[in-house]
Amino acid sequence: MMKDLQELGGQARYIGSLPKDDQMCDFYEVEVDGSIRYVYVPVKPEEKNAD
């Protein structure tokens, strides 16, 4: 699933979802003041519907 880069002002590029510290995270390459940074954003697991 592609992320909407407009939310990040065009300053980030979505790399993909990767495991980090036993949790899935979205991985982004972000440019801040001319420097490239890599950011992991934890992804909440999908909640199952209880019927």
Give a verbal description of the structure.
With 51 residues, the protein is mainly β. It has one domain. Helix content is 0%, strand content 53%. The protein is built from no helices and three strands. The chain has a three-stranded antiparallel beta sheet with strand order 1-2-3, with no helix packed on it. The chain is elongated, with a radius of gyration of 13 Å.
Count of domain modules: 1
Main-sheet strand order equals: 1-2-3
Shape: elongated
Per DSSP, the total helix count is 0
Q: In whole angstroms, how far apart are the ends? A: 27 Å
Low-confidence stretches: none
Overall pLDDT metric: 76
* Relative helix content: under 10%
Please write out the topology.
Layout lengths: L11 E9 L2 E10 L2 E8 L9
Antiparallel strand pairs: 1-2, 2-3
For the structure shown, list the relevant keywords.
51 residues, mainly beta, 3-stranded antiparallel β-sheet, elongated
